[in-house]
Structures are given as structure tokens and as C-alpha cells.
């Protein structure tokens, strides 16, 4: 029997379908698959009228896009008594460059709920999360607990791991061996609106 050569249906598929670009398989721990699917479905999977996916992929800059810089004034803004303002710009500030240290390992997630208000994290805030960082004591982390994403402060006491809320109306979560648990990333920045 001859090997090799053309076989109908073999090889890479043509670019088509939802994404209109090349796709790549990703390996995940089995325990994380439901959380990833839920996360993508709830946060970023809004079908547009033309059938393409709107959200995470459409909001990410294409490789050809230039960084977006905003003017940074050299004089600081007084939070006490007003001070005279300088009329010149010192430099331009690219928020991606300033806030994201590891772009390939960083993602954004929107907060729902008020379990972290005493840490300055409010409902509808956007968190910048870095998956390349190793979580340590007192870090605020995104954890996958029994297939659900949650944001909490990480605390260990001996061999016992806790996920602590920053609101007295919520109880700490003791992570047990019977739970499906993974730390998905460390929160590095909180973005919230003042209006």
C-alpha cells in the first residue's frame, strides 16, 4: 500500500468560519476547560449579525496597529491646594506599555459583585491579570473554583489555603482537596471609572 501523496480531506483546512484567521490548538488541564468555556462564553462571545464573534478577539489590536499614546504632562496634579499648571507635554504615555509587563500572558476581566470593595475593586471594574506571575501570600488572584472564576486575596495558614474576600459581608473560602481549584493569574491593576 502506497503512503503519502494527496488524500481527500487531509491537511490544514482553509481559513473560514467564525474567526476568519488561522487558529491554533491550545492544551489546558481538563479541570480548567469548563471555566475557560464559561469565561469566554459569558465575557466575550457575542455573535454579531454577520455571524462573527465580537469581544476578546475583535477588541485585541492587530499586529499591524501602532501603540496608542496619550500625552503625559510633566507637572503633577495637586490633590491638595491648586498649583499652577505647566503648558507643555513631557512625553507620551502608552497605557499598554505602562500597565502590561507580559503581554502574551496578560488578560482583562470585568468584575461583578462587591466582595472586594475594601481592596478598591468594585462592581464593573476591569482587572488586568498576569498569568506569568507566581501567586504569593496576600496577592489578589483570579482563581477557578469548581469551574467558576472568582477574584479574592490569597492567604495560607500552614498547609491550608484560603481565598479571602475584602468585604465583611462575605465569608472566607477554605480550599479543600475535594474542590477543583486553580489559580488563573495575579491581578496587577484595577481600572475603574469615577463617574
Description of the structure:
By secondary structure, the chain is mainly beta. The protein folds into two domains: 26-60 and 101-195, Umud Fragment, subunit A (Ribbon), CATH 2.10.109.10; 67-99, no CATH class. Helix content is 11%, strand content 31%. The protein is built from three helices and eleven strands, in the order αββαββαβββββββ. It has a seven-stranded antiparallel beta sheet. A hairpin with a 5-residue loop joins strand 1 (46-47) and strand 2 (53-54). It is globular, with a radius of gyration of 22 Å. The model is unreliable at 44-66 (pLDDT under 50).
The biggest sheet, with number of strands, parallel, antiparallel or mixed sense and barrel status, is: 7 strands, antiparallel
**Number of separate structural domains:** 2
Gyration radius, in Å: 22 Å
Number of helices: 3
CATH class of the largest domain: Mainly Beta
| CATH fold-level topology of the largest domain | Umud Fragment, subunit A
Helix content: 10-25%
Mean of pLDDT: 75
CATH superfamily membership of the largest domain: Umud Fragment, subunit A
Order of helices and strands: HEEHEEHEEEEEEE
Pick out the low-confidence regions. Answer: 44-66
Shape: globular
Give the amount of beta strand, in percent: 25-35%
Q: Which architecture name of the largest domain does CATH use? A: Ribbon
DSSP, total strands: 11
Spatial ordering of strands, largest sheet = 5-6-11-7-8-9-10
Helix/strand structural class? mainly beta
What is the distance, rounded to the nearest whole angstrom, between the alpha carbons of the first and last residues?
72 Å
